[in-house]
Each structure stands twice: as C-alpha cells, then as structure tokens.
C-alpha cells in the first residue's frame, strides 16, 4: 500500500525553536506523563506494561524530536514512526495511545513554549497525528524476517547460536562458539555471520514483543562475554596498520556493535583503542589529541544521539591539529534513512562490517601512497 501523505521537507522548524523545545524537555515530559497517566488509569492504553515503559517512551520521544528539529530530517522521523508504532503495539500498547499521546504533547507545547517558537513545532506534531493511521496500516504489510545473505552452513550455525542466546545458556553458547572458531578467519566469519545476525534477530523479537527487556539484556551479556573470550584467544596480534579509536557516542549505552567493529579492525591489523559505551565528548577529544589516531569510529544506536555526534564532529573539525583525522560513523541509528548522514559531518557513514573494513583499508592505502608522492 502506498501511503497518500507527504513528508515535511526543508527547514520546517527553525534552530531557535528546536533549542527552545529542548530547553523545556524535562518540564514538558513531566506534564505529558501526568496527562497520560490519568488517561491510562481509565482507559488502559498500555496493556500489561508498567507505567515506567510509557514514561521511558515519553523521554525518548522528546530527545528524539529535539534531534529531528535540529537536523530537520523528516524522512528519519517518518521511518522511525513506523518502527515506534510497530514496536509498542506489538508490546501491548493500543493504537489509540499514540493519538492521545500526540494530543498531550500538542497541549503541553502550547502551554509551555512561546508561540513564536511553538507554532512550527506544533505543525509537525499535527502532521504526525494525521499519518499515524496510514503508518499502522502500512505496518501490517511489513515482512518481519531478516534475510541471511550467506550460505546454509553458516545459517545453521547462526540458528543454533541464536537459540542458545534465547535460552540464556551462556555455558553452552561459549562451548558452541569454541567449536566453531579455531583461527582468525573463522573468527571473522563468526562475528559477521553469526553474532551480528543473531543480535539482529534478538532485536526483532524484542520489537515484536516476543522477548522481554531482561531476555534481550541477557543475550547481549552472553555475547559480550563470548567476545571477550575470543578476543583473548585470537585477536591479540601485532598491528601492521595504523591506529584507530572506536567508541559509542556520549549518552549511548549500546556497545555490541562498536565492540564487533573494534575486534574486526584489530583482526585486520589495526592498533585499536576501544572505549566502549557512553564516552564523554571532552574526554574523547583529549584522547584523540594524545594518541593521534588515523581515524575515529563512532557507533550510534539511538537516533536521539545524532545531534550530539554532529556537534562532536563539528568540534573536532574546528581544531587544526585534527585536520588529517578521518571520521567514520555507523550503527542502528543510520538504518532508518533520511538526510541526517549528509548533515552529520563524517567522512563516511558505514552500514555494514564489510563497508567499514573496505573504508579503513582504503584510507590506510591512500595515506601510505601519499607519503611517497
């Protein structure tokens, strides 16, 4: 079904309005929580979910919308709306919740923000209200399967590993991993074909409401433990390329993707400084100055961190001693499309492990060739 609606384009919201919205996020979120709590007490719009899940949605929504208004990326908004509706309805939220939530935001924005700033913001909220039903209808046609682009042998291995993650069996999952990984090549295959696609499927099950947050966290914890074991046994090798810093963005608590990239690059000969999750920008810049890496890799999972990454890159670009630093960004936040990748300021947006490897090799080759010209 082709939706009969258009997506806002251009600078629909001024930067000043975006900053005003962001300034009042705590106050507005509390007000929306109050309104929706009262409505839910009589209508039960969130099913069996605790109120904390609804409150978390409201704070994520406000942070995400502040990013949308700063970046004016409404394709990203449209695509993320599809995910949000699909995810929360699958977890027991009623479709009426979203219309009433948007009504609550419109009321609170009207009551809180000066009309000189709020009018364009409210137009975007009214647009969201107008398309919710179309998106819900479109979501019914979504194919939930994640295509596996490798041979059946690796698919069978992936399926077994995935099932062990779902069972939460860390001991058997580690033993199974040991039986598959016996050298650096099989380790690379295990990362790219087994761990990566297993975690995609874990995320999809969470999105569909078929596993709990606790189960998703347990699966992630098992994967991180297995990767630590494999790192100690297969990846401690002599670097023969340059130096790179790999990190998740500030305020980003997801780190499996960044860890996979760090390990794969180290396996490829890079000297990797892996910082993990939630690295403060000022500390990252200090480390860049001290270590002088050839490139910086930043993983972004949550779209509400995009503006923070844009500001970090802008800060780095403004400093002359970082002129030669290449910057690569990637992660789940960039899978929703839109124009944010054009505005973020990175040298490369990577959407896969293979693309990251190809880019890093190209940068290393170009840098070394330029030395002899």
From TrEMBL:
Pfam families: B12-binding, B12-binding_2. The keyword NADP does not apply. PANTHER family: METHIONINE SYNTHASE. The lineage of its organism: Bacteria, Fusobacteriati, Fusobacteriota, Fusobacteriia, Fusobacteriales. It comes from the Bacteria. GO terms for cellular component: cytosol. InterPro entries: Cbl-bd_cap (IPR003759), Cobalamin-bd (IPR006158), Cobalamin-bd_sf (IPR036724), Met_Synthase/Corrinoid (IPR050554), Meth_synthase_dom (IPR036594). GO terms for biological process: homocysteine metabolic process; tetrahydrofolate metabolic process. One of its GO terms (molecular function) is cobalamin binding. This is Cobalamin B12-binding domain protein.
């Amino acid at each position: 079904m082709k939706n009969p609606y258009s997506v806002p384009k251009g600078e629909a919201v001024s930067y000043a309005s975006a900053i005003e919205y962001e300034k009042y996020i705590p106050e507005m979120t509390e007000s929306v929580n109050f309104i929706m709590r009262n409505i839910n007490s009589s209508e039960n719009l969130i099913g069996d979910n605790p109120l904390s899940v609804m409150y978390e949605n409201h704070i994520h929504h406000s942070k995400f919308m502040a990013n949308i208004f700063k970046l004016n990326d409404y394709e990203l908004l449209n695509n993320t709306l599809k995910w949000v509706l699909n995810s929360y309805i699958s977890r027991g939220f009623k479709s009426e919740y979203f219309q009433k939530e948007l009504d609550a935001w419109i009321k609170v924005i009207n009551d809180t923000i000066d009309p000189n700033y709020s009018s364009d913001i409210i137009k975007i909220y009214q647009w969201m209200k107008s398309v919710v039903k179309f998106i819900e209808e479109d979501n019914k046609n979504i194919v939930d399967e994640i295509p596996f682009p490798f041979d059946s042998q690796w698919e069978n291995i992936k399926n077994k590993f995935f099932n062990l993650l779902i069972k939460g069996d860390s001991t058997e999952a580690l033993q199974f991993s040991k039986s598959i990984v016996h050298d650096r090549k099989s380790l690379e295959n295990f990362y790219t074909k087994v761990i990566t696609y297993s975690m995609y499927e874990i995320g999809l099950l969470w999105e569909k409401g078929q596993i709990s947050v606790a189960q998703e966290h347990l699966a992630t914890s098992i994967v991180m433990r297995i990767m630590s074991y494999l790192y100690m046994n297969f990846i401690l090798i002599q670097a023969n390329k340059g130096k790179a810093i790999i990190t998740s963005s500030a305020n980003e608590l997801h780190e499996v993707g960044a860890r996979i990239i760090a390990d794969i690059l180290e396996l490829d000969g890079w000297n990797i400084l892996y910082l993990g999750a939630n690295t403060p920008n000022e500390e990252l810049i200090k480390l860049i100055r001290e270590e002088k890496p050839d490139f910086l890799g930043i993983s972004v999972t949550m779209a509400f961190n995009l503006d923070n990454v844009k500001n970090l890159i802008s800060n780095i670009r403004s400093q002359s001693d970082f002129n030669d630093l290449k910057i690569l960004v990637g992660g789940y936040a960039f899978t929703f499309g839109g124009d944010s990748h054009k505005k973020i300021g990175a040298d490369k947006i990577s959407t896969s492990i293979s693309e990251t490897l190809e880019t890093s090799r190209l940068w290393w080759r170009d840098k070394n060739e330029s030395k002899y010209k």
